[in-house]
Write a structure and sequence with these properties.
The structure is a homodimer of 319-residue chains.
Chain A lengths: L8 H9 L6 E6 L6 E8 L2 E8 L8 H13 L17 E3 L2 E7 L11 H17 L13 H18 L3 H15 L6 E4 L8 E4 L2 E5 L6 E4 H12 L9 H14 L4 H28 L12 H12 L9
Antiparallel strand pairs in A: 1-2, 2-3, 3-5, 4-5, 6-9, 7-8
Helix pairs in contact in A: 3-6, 3-7, 4-5, 4-8, 5-8, 6-7, 6-8, 8-9
Chain lengths: 319, 319
């Protein structure tokens, strides 16, 4: 949650005038997304989201993200659609930053996750994977094994400040994952960050998927591993197998998975737990004093990591 | 700027069902106000602001704030109107906090202050003072001389961390202000925090005044002193006399001021500078690491304070 850049009213008015969406009525910085500055833009024609891409998002990647949203929305996925300006461009510049106006999605993200949310998220995830199958652009996953190693290197010396023994445990984990990481699973474009605050529901029906700014090409089942971690654990750190089953069933209804994908789930979920543990650990150790963003607890993901390490097979997820 | 409380979708839906404003469509935490949690609430009938009153606002004061907004809005002032639920109440409870839904105002606050903004703000301030003249509730100014002394006491020991000599300078300032503070000026309800981010404009016409959460009974001209500090200084710390003149003229057009009020302006502006210096200093020294709110620079107000101390009369403001 963050608004980093304060844009002036003049700048916004000039920016919006390049679009055919009416005149600016109001602009409010909203607490959504941690990588970018997001504003709710009201014009006399409706509501939109104005996004300024901040430093953490590489400028070269923005066309991939906007293109993917456009591609998926055109196939009926409930995701934001980038709005083209009169010159046909969706990616423009505002306050010296890449900027885009995207459509506003109705709904709220679920603070309390229900089983029905999990099964709908699984289904939507599969729909995204299918919709993106013929998306022509590619983006490598910057947060795969080599990225984890880099993060680990820059955290190792201070990791034990967070929990004694953490540096050693993560080092061992990285080695094991590198040795056992599956290589031949079906690949495609994954969302890579489909947490509850990125999925909207209205009356418990999924109404939107947002925040495509980690999307990349990767093993599709890795996205399921991420969702298992993000949706199917209770506050006390225990897996809710009913939710896990609902998630995977929802997914399989729409995209059949191979036996290899199911078999790989524990290691994929373990890798995903390590990925979020490492980025949280990095933010925890490196966030500047007085920063707008409250860093998230890395240890939540240590519990999940240990759980996945302990399971014998995907049957532990209720499958 | 802050959203402190995360309310669940269920809670919000139940809360909104007590009102006759339609069903919840979306809810976004917005970066507005530092004392409360503010959300933009979209229902199928329109946009509203949902405010949760956090600890820094005394629960006993909320009826004063809501009543004042209602009173002023009924007299045509462009300020938010609290919406009554079906039971007639405007003040309710959500997530164990006092909460209210208020009307949404169009417009944006000016990041770059123009002379026309100053004259319109002066006029709106006078309109507020007149509109509130028959408002029956009272609230003491918690940030008058005794409050400043308290803040000073809790900052004195560490004030020199911010600038060497600051503790001594502020101590002397407090003594002088206590000795010379005017006592017999016309009093009434003042806004007490009418900074640019609390005033909206559309096409450079004032469209809204928000954030009444410091309003209190006080010398009316003190509010002018606050606005002089908030609107009429340039980034380099120098007073812009054209803006100051426009502000006071805009005010006088609507509410004639006495000779005593004009004469008192330098000392009132000085007191107001000290007030914001002290609260900023307090926040600077006491804000928790990792807090959502970036503390504002207290020294900006030391410059203003010194300027007002140096002036011989209100003619320094271009009057």
């Amino acid at each position: 949650m963050a608004v980093y850049t304060e844009v002036s009213d003049d700048e916004v008015e000039k920016f919006v005038a390049a679009y055919d969406i009416g005149a600016v009525v109001a602009l409010k910085g909203i607490a959504e997304g941690v990588e970018n500055s997001n504003y709710l833009l009201q014009t006399d024609r409706g509501l939109y989201i104005l996004t300024l891409y901040e430093k953490r998002v590489a400028k070269a990647d923005v066309p991939f993200f906007l293109g993917l949203m456009e591609h998926a929305a055109a196939k009926g996925l409930p995701c934001p659609t980038p709005i083209a300006a009169r010159d046909g461009k969706t990616l423009r510049e505002l306050h010296k930053r890449p900027a885009a106006i995207i459509s506003f999605l109705r709904g709220m993200w679920p603070k309390r996750v229900l089983v029905t949310h999990c099964s709908q998220v699984g289904e939507a995830l599969a729909r995204l994977h299918l919709a993106a199958a013929d998306f022509p652009m590619r983006r490598a996953n910057a947060l795969a094994l080599p990225g984890w190693k880099q993060l680990y290197q820059s955290c190792r010396a201070r990791a034990d400040e967070v929990q004694p023994g953490l540096a050693e445990e993560l080092g061992r984990e990285l080695e094991e994952l590198a040795a056992r990481w599956p290589r031949d699973l079906p690949e495609g474009v994954i969302h890579a960050d489909l947490f509850p605050d990125n999925v909207f529901f209205m009356n418990d029906k999924l109404s939107g998927i947002i925040d495509f700014y980690f999307a990349c090409n990767e093993a599709l089942a890795y996205d399921l591993g991420i969702c298992l971690n993000a949706w199917c654990f209770e506050k006390d750190g225990a897996l809710n197998a009913t939710k896990a089953r609902a998630l995977v069933r929802g997914y399989r209804k729409t995209r059949p998975v191979t036996a290899e994908e199911i078999e790989a789930l524990p290691i994929l979920a373990r890798g995903s737990a390590l990925r979020f543990l490492l980025t949280r650990l990095y933010d925890w150790l490196h966030h500047p004093a007085g920063a707008f963003v409250q860093p998230k607890d890395p240890l939540e993901y240590l519990k999940k990591l240990r759980f996945h390490r302990s399971v014998k097979s995907a049957s532990a997820y209720g499958l």
